[in-house]
Structures are given as structure tokens and as C-alpha cells.
Amino acid sequence: MASKSCADFLDLARGNLLDIPHAPSPRALPRVMTVPGIISDVDGYGSNEGDSDAASSGSRERKIIVANMLPLNTKRDPETSKWCFSLDEDSLLLQLRDGFSPETEVIYVGSIKADIDASEQEEVAKKLLEDFNCVPTFLPQDLQKKFYLGFCKQQLWPLFHYMLPMCPDHGDRFDRVLWQAYVSANKIYADKVMEVITPEDDFVWIHDYHLMIFPTFLRKRYKQVKIGFFLHSPFPSSEIYRTLSVRDEILRGLLNCDLIGFQTFDYARHFLSCCSRMLGLDYESKRGHIGLDYFGRTVYIKILPVGVHMGRLESVLNLSSTASKLKEIKALYEGKKVILGIDDMDIFKGISLKLLAMEQLLLQNPDLLGKVVLIQIVNPARGSGKDVQEAKNETYSTAKRINDVYGSSDYQPVVLIDRHVLRFEKSAYYALAECCIVNAVRDGMNLVPYKYVVCRQGTPNMDKAMGVSESPRTSMLVVSEFIGCSPSLSGAIRVNPWDIEAVADALNSALTMPDSEKQLRHEKHYRYVSTHDVAYWARSFMQDLERACKDHYSKRCWGIGFGLGFRVVSLSPSFRKLGTDQIVSAYRRTSRRAIFLDYDGTVVPETSIIKQPSSEVNLILKTLSDDPRNTVFIVSGRGRSSLSDWLAPCEMLGIAAEHGYFLRDMIRAIRACKTAAEERAVVRKECAAIRASINENDNDYRHRNLAKLMFIHMLGYPTHFGQMECLKLIASTGFPEKRIGYLGLMLLLDERQEVLMLVTNSLKQDLNHSNQYIVGLALCALGNICSAEMARDLAPEVERLLQFRDPNIRKKAALCAIRIIKKVPDLAENFINAAASLLKEKHHGVLISSVQLCTELCKVSSEALEHFRKKCTEGLVRVLKDVANSPYAPEYDISGITDPFLHIRLLKLLRVLGQGDADASDSMNDILAQVATKTESNKNAGNAILYECVQTIMSIEDSGGLRVLAINILGRFLSNRDNNIRYVALNMLMKSVTVDAQAVQRHRVTILECVKDADASIRKRALELVCLLVNETNVKPLTKELIDYLEVSDQDFREDLTEKICFIVEKFSPEKIWYIDQMLKVLSEAGNYVKDEVWHALIVVISNASDLHGYTVRGLYRAFQTSADQETLIRVAIWSIGEYGELLVNNVGMLNIEDPVTVTESDAVDVVETAIKRHSSDVTTKAMALISLLKLSSRFPSCSQRIKDIIVQNKGSLVLELQQRSIEFNSIVEKHKNIRSQLVERMPVLDEATFSGRRTGSLPSNVSTSNGPSSRNNLPNGVSKQPAAAPLVDLLDLSSDDTPAPTSAGGDFLHDLLGVDLVPASTQPGTTQSSNAGTDVLMDLLSIGTSPIPTSTRSEVFSSPLNKPPVTPLDGLLTPPSPTTQSPSTGVSPMLDLLGGFSPPAPALEKNGSVYASITAYESASLKITFDFSKAPGSPETTLIQATYINKSPDEFTSFSFAAAVPRYLQLHLEPSSGNSLPANGNESVTQSFKVINTQHGKKPLLMKMKMSYKANNENVTEEGQVNNFPREL
User: How far is residue 89's CA from residue 235's CA, in Å, rounded to a whole number?
Assistant: First the structure.
């Protein structure tokens, strides 16, 4: 077989392989290779020249550490003028030796921190090598400056920290001179390493961005040298990195390593993205390792955060100087909480942002002034330049401003320490600080948080210095999400340093967090820091480097490329380079040849702009394909049409276009259609071709046809004719055919189709197949389309596969089992034991699937639920604990949390197991508390876990403490900036109110803030939650907050807000004056959004509050002056002025909380006139205004003529109703002054209880009323109750004749207020109710109208309490009497006579059915109840009962109530009682009417149980009884 790495297509053609007529002077094509470079023609290892130069130095293991600077301290002895050196114990390079075995020899290569004269360099180098195992690289001073201060600090460092030189003032642009200095310096470092290295044995470990092309120089000399590289700084995203002019050279330099280490997964991902986008390299992850395939070599990527040296830190803590310093600073900041920041003076450390956050903290929390101080230690800058100076100036100016504003003579909120601080002093500050903040805008690792945690753990000496005992340790960290250590510190509060308010909130949370939670976070951090120290880091890196290099000498290597583009091609030992002669010889010896040619790169060079093959290439292909002994195929991903056109001369040439699937042309044709008709035509054409192929039973094209059908199916066209093709492909033996067949099966079929039953046997065979990939295909298909019949047949195979050796198969089998038990719950018992065994898995994919399987089993089988509760609960708790406490694992890490998906699945299963079981709940309490306290809420992954944890806590059997913690988490959710999180928190809090309302009350302030949110859904949900939180103790402050917000709320939200405020005020008002005040505020602010029943209820309350009439009418008058555009306010105001106008004018009933108001009679009339003349007033408002004017005409005689003029103005109204009323009222004012005062006297008190009963159902449907005090109607009225209806209430009916009559149970209050609600109590069978049920009484009284008034049980509305003789009849406007008979009401005739008696006399009242003997239903020493019975004619099943309650005791009964219960076959309707007070000694009685409907009349008797409750001598008394002596004939 020809290899494209050895020869190109035309070379083979020229090697006398074919007898091809050559064109004159053929052009020479370049050699076609994967990449440009040189491969030695020598068959073998090639020329690895450098390997032979280095002699072996022995078998002792050596590590060569290469870094910019050696771990040495350097100074010149002033006496001898000689250089003195000492090891820098704080250097990370020196500390990493602890990760190596004691036998390991470590050699350091790097520069020293001094300029050594050339004459002294040899002596110094010898001394350093002998004494310290250090090899110095003496860079010339000019080169050192350009290398380090130039290219490294001015170009790489800003770029790697996301700072682009957009203009000269913001960084230096690329300078080729500095780049050449960087290359030269790296070459010098490589030369020094070559002097000491033994390439077969030594490992080279390179550190940081200063030496990123160093590996190229070393790899060019030693092809198989073992090189590792660790980048301590961030690596930018590809969009930033690609701006670097030498990006490819640096990437290729790093790729010459065997292992590349990064601090975080993000940095590694950015590097991989750069390699993929800029070099076209692919990478894959295997068993937790990421590998890049680079010319046959695998370059491994390692994510490994650096740690601290525990021994070094603890030794410093034990110093006496540390303890002394700690005592000193503790005394200095006594009584203050210390926040500590330690940073280099650098533009990326975010020091100024930290100071601004401190300023915001003091601004938001003035109570912290004098109690908190930020100590900022500024380390000397590592670089120089104007950016560092600008950062320093900004830091100082910001600190000075904060101290000037918030400081005092004895208090400075910000303390800047800008000097070299010794390690023991820093340790003292670490130990004292309550919180440490690191908010760099971009940083590599930053070990400050690690050091802080270790120092807060303390030592006995430190405890003695601080005066504390062996108390639990606490620490709080606020870290930027842009630093390398952030993912490792899951207990820290992560912040965006640019969000000043968020950082301030985080600082406040850190300072105010409970000590118990601080302790938990500290323990988690200390456990991680102490186990992942610098020795662990070095040991892990070196182990991975050894693993990456283990097969170095088992491969053949060739070096290719020039300069910095050099790389090594690594191939297997069996690889042989094929020459032209070998290929030609093999070709001539064989008689049958299969030739497969790639198009791009073989037939046509990849670099060629013209992709069409030349005539010479076509001639060669034609000659090859025309030979009957040859089978030639072109394999390409290009489309069929283009390849067919280009290769048309080659008739016998095979084309495998689109890698074997001819989909692209069809898809392109469909997408090119401009209309639906064109698309249908293309699809029909393709479907016809597919049908033809199916009919011909074309096996070769079956998989292609099915691929097309799947695309057509996704477009929505019918593809049922291809279903059998799926089955045929599934029944084939090859994996590719089965794969496309199963995919088609899942797309084209579903469980409802009968043809699916034919695939059961194939599925069973594939589930038992030896190829695990085919088993996986069958499981995927079964899990997607399994029917009940298939589930029963294949359940044993799935159960067996739950124990399969491959974890992916076990995972798919578990998912498939879930589908099976959903389809056939009876099969659940087959999977119980297998599912329980899977819970011990370590593979997360299998574990997630098994947990979900167990959850589903518990839902469908009580047996499974009990089994898992008893045998698996403790194991699940351990699994969740291990996951929650697991160290950083990049393969499972999401936002610093290990596998949140597994967290959530485990919590859901624990919720199912703990619900209703106290023992299971008790076993999981601790882990739930741990998850709730240790999981961070600054990322969505953490929020998802916390939400599931809260749901679990609220569902299991638990004590209140854990539930309070869960509700507090929801409270924190409400402060989140994500709308979705706040919404789900509100939903969950609404459910939690019924469980622990007191805990939810603690977050009332936050919930109220959500009511003011910009998001409409959050506002609405928060408002509903507020309604649930209101009670008698907090109703006043909550209502005030809501009303205040009502003033500024959006118009879209006002209706909902108004409705809820009115509901709260009505239900929980402690007193009527408060109720009236709040309703006036609502009417003033949002009167147009108030519903009718709300202001109706307000009028009822006003009518009952006799001592507040004057106060109310004055308040309404004032409100009208400022809010005359609110319709409902106007209605209530003009009604009140009409009723109590004289109280307004005379300032009657003044309270000490109000100021007097001067209002004349004319002013009062002005209000009503304004209302009636408003162009926006509706008919109801104008009708009420006319009634108010009619009443004021009697109360204000001096304004009578003016009122008459206003009324007359409406005679010409286009609204017939107003026109009619104007004529009627004008007649009363002008001609019937003698009866006007009686006709328009003040409205009697309206019964609140009756109105409340009629309003049932008007409360907001989505607000629970299960708890809380009873409604406002239970409040004392202050006046005695009057009869339910009075004669003059309904005289002035303004309801038109065509208005439908409301039902008796829910009559419109407006009809009660403005007219008569005449509704029959029960319509007789076979009779028709009058359609004009709302006929105006006044029209009848004045003989204007002929509609009859139907019978009403409320005939008492016409019975007048005024026992006055008839007065002079009306005349003038009256028409002849109507011949229609009036309804038989005893109350009509007197009032008709009162106004003239022109209607015919009413006939005598017909007897209301049969009358039965009274019975004593109940009698005790203090109470007697009697029942009187009657029946309505024609309705024998209905019994009317009038109960009489008599108090036999010498004490008065108050708050009397009667309740009754009847069997199901009876229907009981209770009317309101005539009163709720029973006078002593039977002086008066209270009556109440019932209606009982017996659905089993004639078969079963009447039965009733009674319960009476009342107060006697301020004690609650309850009596009960049963009535069994009803007359049988009832």
C-alpha cells in the first residue's frame, strides 16, 4: 500500500508503474506530505546524532529543574568582595524537592539575581554546581533586560493576563528585537542543560512562560529526551492568544514537551483550543488524562494546582517572633474585625477594586464603622513601568479618600502596608484576620488563600498568643473567580472582582456568617490544603511525566522541520517507508489490485487553490481504472456532484463521495428550495428513488437510503415505507449497518407500531452479541422505543447486562431498565438486587444511572422502597459524603463542584427514601446539613444542588433546625441576581409556609424587595408569598410597604398589587379606622384598578362605623381634591357626601388624629358636580352622582335650586338611563318637597355578615385562607345590627329593564345600593320567570313602566320601619296605571300609597304552603330552640324552617352562632340570623331561616345535628344536640 508520507501520486506514475503516454515536458509537482519537513530516507531510527554525544553518568535518578531564576539568595561580602550564596527556603523550586525520593539528585538551571562579571563567572559557576547543584546561565545584562523586562514582562505577561496593546498607552506592541532576545535566552538555557544532561535517564522539568520555546532546542538535540513543562501563569483564550505574532512558534515549542501542566482546567482548555484552531490538532480524554496527537507523539495535558509547603509555614508559626507580633497587632486592632489582603503591586491584582469594595461595604453598612478594618499588605512590584506606577498612585489615592470620608482620629478603615514584610509578620496577620480577600482580575495560582487557611489553623504557640483554647478553627475566604486556586476552594465565596457591590456583599457575608458555618468551610479548606501541598504537586507531576515517557524507546523517531518549527515524528517500530521501486515491484507481481486514493492531499495537493484535478492526473486515474485487474476508488468528503464532474473522463473509477453517504447533495438541494412546493418536489423525487431502490432490494445502497429517509423524516414528511429497511440493516452482521439501522429504528418507529414486534428477536441476539459496541446499540434502541411486550421479552437480558464488565454497558442497561419498569411495573422486583449492587460503583456514569433506576423502582414498588430504605440508605449517605468531600477532579468538576449531576440524583433518591420514614430521615440529616452548608451558591451548579437539598430537607421527616437551614438557603437565593433562581426560591418558600411559617417570616424584608423586582413573574410570585405571610402582628408594616410601592409601581402590575393589598387589608385589619385609612390610600393611588366588590365592601364598613362617618367623609373629600382621576374613589366619595354631607360641612365627629377642614355646602355640591361632569365618568358614577345630588337637595336646602339645575342638565343626556333619572329626580325636587326628606333619608346600616356571605368566592383564588385570623367582618361594628333590608335602601333603583337579574346567592351589590334586587327565592316548576327582573321600582311607583315585579323572598325590603300615614300623592308626570298585576308583597302597597296609590290595590297575600306543628328542637338549662315549618306550593321536597333562639339564663349571650349538619341526601341552606346577641331571661329572641331539600323525599326522614356557640360572662360556651323529632309528613 502506498503511504502519502513517502511519495506523491505523480512520482509513482513516473516510476514506470504504468504505461502512460507522457505529455511533453511534464511539470514537476512538489512532494505531497502531511506537513512540510524532512524524513530521513534511512530505514531505522534515523540519525539521532545527539543521543550518542552524552555519556551515561550512572544509574542514579536525576531531575533537572529549569527556571528563570535559581532558588538562591545572592550578596557580595563587603570585606572579601566575594559573592556569597544561600538557598532561598521560600522558593517553590526548592520546596518541590520534598516530592522526590531522597535518592533523587536535583539539578537547578537558571539565572541568578546579580550581575556577575565575566571574569568571575567560571568561579561562581563551579562553586554553585559543587555546593548547591545549580547551573547558572550568565545572560549578558543587555540580553537579560530585553529578555525578562522586555518580551516576558511587556508582551507575554500582559497578554497572558488578557491585556491587549490596543494603543501605545496600554502596553507595548510586538517588537521583533525583544523576540529575538527571548529566543537567544532560551537557547542559552538549553545549552546549559545540554552540558549536564543524560538524555536516556534524566527528566527535565521546565517552569513558567519565560522558557516556552526552550523544549524545541532541547528536542532538536535529543529526540527522545523526557521533558515536562508547567505554566504557573494563566493561559489566555484563543481569541486573545491568536493576536500574538509568534503564536505558532510558542505552541510548537510547548508541544515538543511530553507533559504540559496547568493550574486549572480553564487554562488547559484554552491551550487545547489554541492547538485545535491554529495548528489543527485533535485531542482526546482517556481515563482522566488529556492527550494531544502531535505527529505520532502523544503530548499529555495535566491539570494540577500548586500547593504550599506545610512544614515551612508551621515552622514560621512556631517562632516566638510570630507570637510576639501577633500580640502586638491584636492589641492594635482590639475590638475590630480584620480583613486581610496581600498582593503584589500589579495592575492585575485588583487592589484598587478591593478598596472600592471596602468603601461600598461601609456605605451599605454604616453600623460597621469603627468595627472593621482592611489591612492591605503590598509586596514590592516584580516589574517596572508606568502601569505599575499608575496602579500604585490609584491605590494610595483611593485609600486616602476612604480614610478621609469614613475614618477618624482613632480609626482608619483602610491600612496600607507598602514595604517588605517579613514572613513571620505576614503569618501573624494571617492568623489574626477574620477574612482574607484575594480579588485579582487575572492570576495564575496565588497561594495567599492557602497560607491564610494554614495560619488560621494555628499552633499551640499561636493559640497562647491569641489567648484562645482548643476551640474550633474558623476562616473565611473571598476569592476572585479569575485566579487559579478558586476551583480548589469550594468553601470560599467566589466573586467577580469587577462587580464592586457583589464583592462588598461577599465581605459582609463573610463577616456576619455564623461561626458554625465558618468552621465547616475552614475544615474543608484545611483538609484540602494540607493534603495537596507542594510535595504532592511535585510528586504527581513527576509520576505523570514518567508515565508519559514510558514508551519513548519503543518507537521510531525522525526530526523534521527547521528552526522553531522543528518537531519529531514518532512512528511504531513496524513502520517502514515505502519507496517508489518497492511499490512498482509489488504492483507488477500481483494480478488483482485494490487501490484507494484520498482526494485532498493525494490526488490534489492540500495547499492548491484549484481543487479540480489536472488533465495529467485524470489521465493517470483513467489508465489505472481502465485496467481490468484494478479496482480504483477515490475516497473524499466532497460532494458527489462535484467529484463526478471533475472525474468524468474516468468512467471505470469508483467514487466514495461524502465518505460513503450521498446526503450532502440532497440536503443542499432541499435547502436551496425557495418555496414549500419546490421542497416537496425534491422530497418526492428522492422518495421515489428510495422506493425504487427498496423494490430492487439493493443491499449496497440500503444504509444510504435510510440515512436520507431519516433526514426527510426530520423535515416532517412521511417515511413509513422505509421501516422494513431498518429491520434489514439491524439483522445484518456489520457494525456500520447495525448502527444506521438502530438509528433509523429510533427515529422512524415508535412503540405503537406493530412492525416493531419483528425486531424483538434481533434485539435479543444483539444484546447477547460478543461485540460490546453492538450490545450498546441494542440497549440504546431498547431504551428509546421499548414497548410493554418487548419489555417482558427482553427484561432478563437487560438484568444480566447490569453486571456486564464494561461500565458503559452497565450504564446503558440501567437506563434501559428504567424504561422497562415504567412500561411494566410488575417487572420491578427483577431489578431490585441488581440495582442495589450498582450503588457500590465507582464509575460516575454507572452510579448516576443506578441511582435513577433505584428512584424509579421506589416509585413503582413499595417492596423496592422498603428494601432500599433498610439496606441502601447508609450506603447512599456515604456515597454522597464522598462526592461532597472529594478533592478537585477535573474530569468531573463543574464550576468547582464535583459532579453536580450525581449530587442531585443522590439527593432525589434520599428524598424518596426519607419521606415518611423517621429512621431513614435521621440517618441522612448530617449529610444534608453538610451539603447545605458547604455547597457554594455563586454558580448554577451549586444552586442546583442546594435547591434539591432544600427540597429533600422539606420532604423528609425532620426536626425544625434543618428546615430553618433550608429556608435560610432559599432566603439567600432571593438575593441572587439570576431571575430563575429567585423565582424557584419564591415557589419553594410558598410551599414552606405551611411547614414553618416563622422561619419564612425572617426573610420578609427580602421577599418585599422581590415585590419591587423588574421581572413581572418574580413580582407576582413574591406578592402571593407576602399574602401568605401576613398576620395580625405584621399586617400594618407590610401593608405600608406595599402601599408605598403602589405609588411607584408599573401600570401593568398595579392591578395585581391593588387586589392583594385590598385582600390583606380586608382580611387582617385590626380596626375599622385603619381599614378605612388604608382603603382610602389605595383608592387614591390606584382607584381605577379596584374591583367593584372591594369598594362595595368599603361602603358596607363605612355604613357600619357610625362613629367614623365624619372622619371618613372628610378623608374622602381630601382624597378627591388630590386624586380626582380615580373612578372608584369618586364613587365612594360622592356616596359618602350624599349620605353624610352635613357631617362634612359641620365637622361632626372630629378625631384627635385629624385636622379640621373648612367645607361649605357649595363645596360639597361642587364635588358631586365635578364627578357628574367628568367626561371620563361612566354611567354608574353619574347615576350615583344624581342620587347624591337628590339626597343633598334635602340636606342642603340653600343649594336646592343649584342642585335642581344640575339635575335638569342631564335631561338631554344621550344615555337613556341618566335622562330618565334626571326627569324623575327633578320631579321629586320640584314638586314633592313634602316627602323628599323621608324618601332620601340616610341609608340604614348594611349587614356585614350578609354581604360577606354573598361575596364568597371573590377573594383571590390563588391565595390560601387556611390560616390567619377571620375576616374583617368579625370586627365589632360599634352599632347595633339593623334588619337585613330596609324600605328606603332600594327605592331609587337605577338598574335598567334589560339588565339580567343576578342570582339570589350572589346578587350585585350595586343593585342593593342603587336599586331593588328582586329575585325569586325559588321558581315554581312549569312557570317562567319574568325577564324584566330588574324593573325600576321608582318607575312603577310613578307608573312609568309596565313590567311586573317577580316574587321575592326578600319582600321585607319593602316593609317600612316608619309607621307613618300616607301622604299626598304625586301628580303631573304619572301615566295611567298598568293593567299588570303587582307581585304579592306586603311591603309594596304601603309605599305605593305613600307616593299616591295610583296602582291597583295589591291582592291579599296567598298562604305560603301548608303549615305544620312547631317542635322544640333543643332545650337545655340555658338555651331553647324551636322550629316552625312550612312548605312552598308545588315543591314537597323543600321544607322551610324558621328557628327561634331563646336565652333562658340570667346572663346575656354574645357572639351567638348556630351550625348544623345533615346527611348526604339532604341539602341545607342557612340564611343569616337576625342578630348575634341573646338578651337574658328570654326578653327577646333571635330568629333564623333554613331551607332543607330532601332528595329522598317520602323515603327517608329529616335529621339534623346542631352546634351552638356563644359567650357568656366572657367565656366561650359550646352546646350540641340532635333533632330526631321532625314531623313525618315533612
Answer: 28
Contact 307, 533 (CB under 8 A): yes
Q: Minimal CA–CA distance to 42: which of 389, 557, 484?
A: 557
Residues with Cβ within 8 Å of residue 496, at least 6 apart in sequence: 480, 481, 502, 503
Helix%, strand%, coil% for the chain, nearest 5 = 50, 15, 35
**The three cell numbers locating residue 1096:** 362595595
The answer to whether 317 and 462 are in contact (CB under 8 A) is yes
User: Which residue is it, cell 467514487?
Assistant: 655
3-state secondary structure 1343-1403: CCCCCCCCCCCCHHHHCCCCCCCCCCCCCCCCCCCCCCCCCCCCCHHHHHHHCCCCCCCCC
What whole-number distance in Å separates Cα of residue 1062 and Cα of residue 1089? 11
- In DSSP terms, which residues pair with 893 in a beta bridge? 898
- The C-alpha atoms of residue 446 and residue 431 are separated, in whole angstroms, by 18
Count of other CB atoms within 10 angstroms of residue 948: 20
What CA–CA distance (Å, rounded) separates 171 from 175?
A: 12
- The residue written with cell numbers 413574591 in the block is 1022
Distance CA 1044, CA 1037 (A): 11
Q: Which amino acid is at 899?
A: D
Q: How many residues does the chain have?
A: 1530
Longest CA–CA span in the chain (Å) reads: 141
- Report pTM: 0.52
Across the chain, how many H-helices and E-strands are there? 59, 32
Q: Which is more confidently placed, 38 or 238?
A: 238
Q: Which residue has the cell 337605577?
A: 1294
Q: Which three cell numbers stand for residue 1530?
A: 315533612
Neighbours of 941 (CB within 10 A): 22
Q: How many whole angstroms from its chain centre is CA 1452? A: 61
**Tens of pLDDT along 115-172?**
888 888 888 999 899 889 999 998 988 899 999 888 998 889 888 888 887 766 556 7
- Buried/exposed code over 899-931 (b: 16+ C-beta within 10 A; e: otherwise): bbbbbbbbbbbbbbbbeebeebbebbbebbbbb
Q: Are 374 and 469 in contact (CB under 8 A)?
A: no
* Cα 1149 to Cα 1135: distance, rounded to the nearest angstrom: 18
Residue 370 grid cell:
469603627
- Other C-beta atoms closer than 10 Å to the C-beta of 643 total 19
Contact 178, 149 (CB under 8 A): no
C-alpha distances in Å from residue 131, one per residue of 70, 84, 108, 987: 13, 11, 12, 70
Distance (Å, whole) CA 550 – CA 224: 11
Contact 719/700 with Cβ under 8 angstroms?
A: no
Residues 347-403 pLDDT 10s? 888 899 999 999 999 888 888 888 899 999 998 877 666 778 888 888 989 999 998
Rounded to 5 degrees, φ, ψ at 1415 are: -130, 155
Q: Are strands 1504-1512 and 1485-1494 parallel, antiparallel or unpaired?
A: unpaired
